[in-house]
Specification:
The chain is of the alpha/beta class. It contains twelve helices and 38 strands. The strands form eleven sheets. The protein has an eleven-stranded mixed sheet, sandwiched between helices. A five-stranded mixed sheet has the order 26-27-28-29-30, with helices on both faces. It binds S-adenosylmethionine. The site of S-adenosylmethionine (SAM) has 19 residues, from strand 24.
Length: about 700
């Protein structure tokens, strides 16, 4: 059963995308085995339609997105096991933009840029369901607990032992910047949502009401469907000595892009069978009789109501003892059978909102995503999560036969998602083989028609802009200060330090410097009218809009309106200061050789200087002795025919349990002729090394 709502006011007309230069249409779909990188020579401009509604929330630096540059993406990884039947060839995929290989899509990059890229490349209004769980601006740097594989870690009394902690993503902005961040993302994702699409946004109690105002503005207040409560982590919270009320729930804000959206009812299992009960027959619903005549007596509803069942049906129920006169009120009532499931309402607190299977902080539970995906999409439709984190949305979409797109700015998130999907797909192939074996599946001519679940057995990972230089934020800030010669000033709660006579501001390295960051500096300088020192802004990368912002600023400066010169050091491209971010890579000792038609690979040793360094930094913790290189390795992937650009995963060794080790010895069929064999080793800090051997 589905529910439909009245159409909200018509959407403001979206201007046509301005495309420069014209993107050549491909004539035919590229072969799955050779996915084409999504290239266009120059950035493409895409237009974002204006927000819809009022009332509006405002903040310093509020600026709607108008035009955005969409940059190309590079295909960096592909997983396409040969053993699976090619469901991607089915009709359901005919609407897939030809630029992309059919199958799941993962993007490493800032979601604003990734969404612009997707919109410019055929995904405008193609996505049926969006789920996002953005960072909550809690002022916390989430840490990923990293442990060595197969090592029993000694625990120091009172301390949660982890070999080292890695900052997964920084979650702290000031409120204005955070609201601007959310506003822009909602604006741009509206463009990718189909007209009958639904977006579900998770927020915590602190930001829910801001989010609601912003989403009302972007999608229109009529588009708001409901607010669902979900469980937060159930900690052993005691109120002893606490002065605060522990948070039990988060909120899901559900918006329908238009009245064409359909929310599918999902059943919730009751903890125990609900007993049958007598229910009043009055109903406000029309049509329904105004009176019923049963056993010679006439019954009426209470004023303003109707009776629920028509005469003929009521007579049958009366005879079967399922309809009666209430002994006290004299009104009609009918028997509701016992049930063990009911339709889901907006209280989802019966299931966990978080789980901790992948070790990624804030990993949402699969049960939660199962409900979201089932309620907002049908098999085969496209589901998007552009804050994908550990990949729960992609994983559940894969399990439920939906197509999916995931995106995250954190490379660790993309790795976690990729590993998770590989395991699921391999299991699904096994399952498929079993079914074929038992004769439950026919893989003949009509095979693809029969395989509704899953929608794909492959995925590709792309990178939009170069976020490969992702490094630990705090560590990087310290290093940057050291290398650029910045003296930290702890007493200043805005600027990070000074360099000579200049003030220094370091933009968090998890996002490119944007005009919003610069507006913050402008605001701060305005609040310090006597401050005439110049400002150095250090960032990892910068948005293009920054240059025009600086031109405007210099104009103000030249006309004497502001005294401070602003200089930017972009570490990613800076020849002088950027060198330190190129840290020492891990070393591998490996042997690759061909015997007949097989390739044999053996890894003898792996040393990560970063892990060793971190280990040495552990103060007060017992030093862990690494006697097996495999304890430092999270997983190994092999491409036996590497083309130098896209890593096609032919074999992946992802140990299932945390204590299991990778094998280190591999054998796989050798392609004909001379080939490059690429071996990707991902260590326990998420650092990747790719070793290439020609055989
Ligand atoms: C709360 S977590 C999402 C958890 C996810 N739902 C799961 O089940 O694991 C938020 C994610 O947003 C990512 N993120 C933050 N800013 C981003 C941005 N600008 N672009 C893309 N991803 C971003 C973070 O790296 C983090 O993985």
């Amino acid at each position: 059963m589905t529910t439909k709502r009245a159409k909200p006011a018509k959407a403001a007309k979206t201007k046509k995308a301005v495309i420069y230069p014209k993107v050549k249409k491909q004539k035919s779909t590229p072969a799955i085995a050779e996915p084409k990188p999504v290239h266009h020579a120059k950035p493409v401009e895409i237009t974002i339609s204006p927000a819809k509604g009022r009332p509006m929330l405002t903040w310093v630096g509020k600026k709607p997105l108008g035009l955005m540059n969409a940059f190309p993406a590079q295909l960096v990884e592909r997983f396409e096991p040969k053993a699976a039947s090619p469901v991607e060839k089915s009709e359901a995929w005919s609407d897939w933009p030809v630029q992309y290989p059919k199958g799941g899509l993962l993007f490493h990059g800032d979601n604003k840029e990734v969404l612009a890229h997707l919109i410019a490349n055929g995904f405008r209004q193609r996505v049926k369901s969006i789920y996002i769980d953005p960072p909550f601006n809690t002022g916390v740097d989430y840490v990923r607990k990293v442990t060595l594989r197969g090592k029993k870690m000694e625990k120091i009394a009172g301390e949660e032992y982890s070999f080292t902690e890695q900052v997964q993503y920084s979650n702290s902005w000031n409120l204005d910047a955070y609201l601007q961040f959310l506003f822009q993302r909602l604006q741009i994702c509206k463009e990718i949502l189909s007209d009958d699409g639904i977006i579900v946004i998770r927020m915590d109690v602190h930001f829910g009401y801001y989010l609601r105002m912003i989403a009302d503005e972007v999608f229109g207040a009529n588009a708001f469907e409901n607010e669902i409560i979900v469980n937060r982590i159930k900690k052993n919270v005691t109120n002893k000595g606490r002065r605060t009320i522990p948070n039990a729930v988060d909120y899901l804000y559900v918006y329908f892009k238009s009245g064409d959206a359909e929310y599918k009812n999902v059943l919730r299992k009751l903890p125990q069978k609900q007993q049958g009960y007598w229910h009043n027959m009055d109903s406000p619903e029309i049509p329904g009789p105004r009176s019923l005549s049963l056993s010679g007596k006439t019954y009426y509803p209470s004023p303003g109501n109707h009776l629920k069942f028509p005469q003929a049906q009521a007579e049958k129920m009366w005879e079967a003892g399922k309809l009666r006169e209430n002994p006290r009120s004299g009104n009609l009532e009918y028997w509701v059978e016992e049930k063990d499931t009911i339709n889901l309402d907006s209280d989802w607190s019966d299931i966990p909102g978080y789980t901790f299977d992948t070790g990624y902080p804030t990993e949402n539970s699969e049960q939660l995503l199962e409900r979201v995906i089932k309620a907002t999409s049908k098999p085969g439709e496209i589901v998007l999560d552009f804050f994908v984190g550990s990949g729960t949305t992609a994983a559940v979409a894969q399990k439920l036969g939906r197509r999916y797109i995931g995106c995250d700015i954190n490379r660790g998130a993309i790795q976690t998602t990729s590993k998770r999907l590989q395991t699921i797909i391999v299991d699904q192939i096994e399952e498929q083989k079993k079914k074929i074996h038992q004769g439950k599946l026919d893989l003949g001519e009509n095979a693809t028609e029969q395989l509704i679940v899953p929608a794909q057995y492959s995925f590709s990972a792309y990178r939009v802009n170069d976020y490969d230089l992702y490094i630990q934020h705090n560590e990087a800030v310290n290093l940057a200060c050291e290398h650029i010669g910045i003296t930290r000033t702890k007493s200043d709660n805005f600027f990070d330090g000074t360099r000579g006579k200049s003030l220094a501001k370091i933009t968090p390295f998890n996002h490119p410097l944007s005009p919003v960051d610069l507006e913050e500096i402008k605001k701060e300088l305005k609040a310090r009218p006597n401050e005439d020192r110049d400002v150095i802004v250090v960032c990892l990368g910068k948005e293009h809009a920054v240059d025009s912002w600086l031109t405007d600023w210099n104009r103000l400066r030249n006309s004497g309106d502001v005294p401070n010169k602003i200089n930017i050091i972009e570490l990613r491209t800076d020849q002088k200061y950027g060198k330190f971010i190129k840290h020492e890579p891990a070393k591998v000792r490996i042997k690759v050789h061909r015997t007949g038609d097989r390739i044999k690979i053996e890894i003898f040793d792996f040393i990560s200087p970063t892990i060793i360094e971190r280990l040495n930094q552990q103060n007060g913790l017992l030093q862990v002795k690494i006697d097996d290189w495999r304890s430092m390795v999270d997983c190994v992937m092999i491409d036996p025919n590497y083309d130098g650009k896209v890593f096609n995963i032919s074999l992946s060794d992802v140990p299932e349990k945390k204590n299991d080790l990778v094998s280190g010895k591999y054998e796989l069929p050798a392609p004909k002729g001379s080939v490059k064999v690429a071996i990707k080793i991902i260590d326990m800090l998420g650092e990747e090394v790719v070793e290439i051997r020609e055989i």
